[in-house]
Input
Amino acid sequence: MALQLQVEKHDTLDRETMLRIYRLMYLSRRLDDKEIQLKSQNKIFFQISGAGHEAVLVAAGLLLKPGHDWFYPYYRDRALCLTLGSTAKDMLLQATGAAEDPSSGGRQMPSHWGNERLHIVTQSSPTGTQFLQAVGCAEASYRAELVGGPDRLIQGYYADSVTYVSAGDGTTSEGEFYESLNTACNLRLPVLYVIEDNGYAISVPLEVQTAGQSISTLVSGFPNLFVEEVDGCDVLASYGVLKRAIAHCRDRRGPALVHAHVVRPYSHSLSDDERLYRLPDELRDEVARDPIRCFAALLTRQELATSEDLNQVAKEVDDEINGAAQEALAAARPERKTVTRFVYSPDVDPTSREFDTESTRPQNGVEKTMLDLINACLHDEMARDARIVLFGEDVADCSREANLEKLKGKGGVFKVTFNLQRRFGGARVFNTPLAEANIIGRAVGLATRGLKPLPEIQFFDYIWPAMHQLRNEVPLIRWRSNNHFKCPMVIRVAIGGYLKGGAIYHSQCSESLFTHTPGIRVVMPSNALDANGLLRTAIRSDDPVMFLEHKHLYRQTHNKGPYPGPDYMVPFGKARIAREGADVTVITYGATVFRSLIAAKKVEEETGVTAEVIDLRSLSPVDWTTISASVRKTSRALVVHEDAGSWGYGAEIAARIADDLFEDLDAPVRRVTALDTFVAYAPEFEEAILPQVDDVAAGILGLARY
Output
């Protein structure tokens, strides 16, 4: 009878469950200790612990459903992952960098969780990038439900699923945290935020991080957001609060934020020594709140376990960990030759013949602009694939759909996405907040669930707020998860100058930042037909693609082409010989293709020198075969591009020609580029800064006469 009274106080948690909670908490702590020991023996190479956070995380793991809900944890969430079904061996395989590490195959450091079966989405090191991805993950269900047939459109669909995302108190200082809350609350998405507040972000205390020292107070004004604070060292209190928060999410009343106050009895990581910035009295006070110590005392005090029971749990756990450590240390190492595996999709090759239908290039038909043929491709592909969602700033015809019958509609600042919302509906074509990280971060979550996002960044000049997502997340997810997760998407971006009035913040290039990033493909068409074919290839591929649309070329007449039909594709990595010649090879792309063609014609008419002009079209991958054949024929190479010269894309092409084709050259490799400055407003300045026809002509003649 006494035992029954105690059980009733624990919210239906029976004795067996209470002992399981203790075991999971103890297992998590002892795994930290084992990793610390292995690090001191130089058998592993990094360690960061979840000590002090165990109670609230085990409670969350008991209430959430692995393989049903979705999880975006952070590095302290060892106890959560163990409760969901990860094993001690799984974690020690990651610590040792073993080939069979289920999180990353030896690619990521310890405590970077990932498990496809359990829906623990691959985690990275940047703090805060997970928030927007979690929102996108939850939004995938929302969008699929609006479209209809969600179980066929997305992976792992359940009508009541919740997306869990966690972080420390310091991470709430990141702007992406607030961007994610804005969208989660606006769309009433079932996102459970667990903020594990241990009072420190490495050495920076709470009062320096957070105004008022309470993140839950700061976010209390967000509509539809359940907010509750809890002692995260108390399993039972945490269980009760999380149960209410999860119910709020499952009932589709909006997101929830649980602000859990926890402790950090160990230093931030083994690279940190907290004794350098925390007083001994403070550390002693935290020992009194240690969740494992407190829960063990509760179990014995309430006669749910004896000291012998707890000792037996400890022995079983220690034996399990020691055995797992031996197996992990003996596990096979990754083979060196596999290191580049999964940088790109192993299943879909956009450079293959499957994506080459250029032989069907139409010879006749009404000539349309690049803008028209990009729009036509988007219409074709959205009709073909219901998984495609297109979004960004101003891309919709009208966010207030009820007004569409009375309005012509916007469809983007350049009209590229005109009539897409009108045809496919606001569930698939929609405007976002003016926040570039929001756009790309949500796209990552949407793609993880199996939708095909086509996010638009309105101007390349404003892409920089999304760089954390674009550099550290989008290109890396497949590789760092050892192909367990992926995020194929097409990021459409208006780029470039030659605008007369574009000035500093509407004329930038810098495509080399993305061609320098493994895992993302980069294309930049110069004409309407290529734009249509390359975009279709990008959409049908299985990798992230940066699709650069030159603003100056949208409505030009010189690059028009006929509509090629709904299956016309240009493969990546296949350049186009825009003009044949024998004396100099000009390698270029984008808006400088036309200028190079005019220059080549001018030089031939005036001197008889013929230049072969190669339009790369695809910047990464690049068609080295075509470049090599042309340079071997002409023995002279001129690289022309719109971006600044120093450290740019042309430098890599020039260096590779010098490396690989040196014996074939009769002259140095030269470049014609923009000046090393920004594009100015005054037309005279812009003309002086960007490469012009005469600059290219002089470059051709200079090489021919060398």
